[in-house]
Amino acid sequence: MTTWTPVCRLDDLEVLWGEAVLVDGEQFALFRLPGDRIHAVSNEDPATGSQVLARGIVGSRGDRVTIASPLHKQVYDLETGECYSTPEYRLPVIGVRVVDGVVEIGGVAA
Question: Nearest-5° angle of CA 22, CA 23, CA 29?
Fold first, then answer.
């Protein structure tokens, strides 16, 4: 069973901009895309261990939405966590949903 944790209101997130959230001592990066699509991933850069992914650059690769690390510019698929530029890296993807205007992330221990 997935535990859903409310983290913010949808209106608190800017389109195409990342925000970091802290849940039970773990950092996550949230991204709001056009059409109110939300993605959540670990905020930890797999290449460096730094908590910086929320400050990455949102982009695309074909029809895939991506985030580029602000440090070394590795490019990750926001849906799968696959790293396009350095295949040995993988970004943990977190379940996310919006309920009554509140963004919740899943799979986080309550």
Answer: 50
Smallest CA-to-CA distance from 98 within 33, 54, 47 is with 33
pTM over 0.90: yes
Q: Which two tokens stand for residue 35?
A: 């059409």
- DSSP β-ladder status, 64-68 and 75-77: antiparallel
Question: Own/partner pairs for 7-11, CB < 8 Å, 24+ apart?
Answer: 7/103, 7/104, 7/105, 8/102, 8/103, 9/101, 9/102, 9/103, 10/36, 10/38, 10/98, 10/101, 10/102, 10/103, 11/101
State the chain's mean pLDDT as an integer: 94
